[in-house]
DUF1476 domain-containing protein (Sphingomonas citri), 107 residues
Amino acid sequence: MTTFEDRQRAFEAKFARDEEVAFRIVARRNRLVGQWAAELMQLTPAETDAYARAVVQADFEEAGDEDVVRKVYGDLTAANVDVDEAAVRRALEEKTIEARRQLLQSE
């Protein structure tokens, strides 16, 4: 019975680790998207940092990416940046890849 319990604990530990990594990737991706949008809005470095944090916080409003897309697209539109929602979604995809790469390199 000990072998089975050991396997169960190992699976639980792997699941927890995978969830932590996924969370870190999404948080880093959101920060990168915030920086991307801030650059398009021509924000100062201090404003860019604050905006990137705000985008990370926006992800906690609801499950999925819609809250981030809504915030970034809305802010870009309000700043008169010529961008469509599809561009924001593409940025999310591209920044996910970049965030995963950065996280793997840092470990």
